[in-house]
Amino acid sequence: MDDEQRKQRIEQLAREIWEAEGRPDGHAERHWAMAERLVEAEVQASQSLLQDAPPAPE
Prior knowledge:
By secondary structure, this protein is mainly α.
């Protein structure tokens, strides 16, 4: 995931969090921080899956 994809994913998740909470005002920083943590977890999980995958047959 490059920087632009990461930023777009964070924006998407932050918006989903905001909407799920009923669109409250004044919580953008908290929503963004939550989204950043979720994206980091997604990246780590993806990397872990790639490391644990069996090698491709030759």
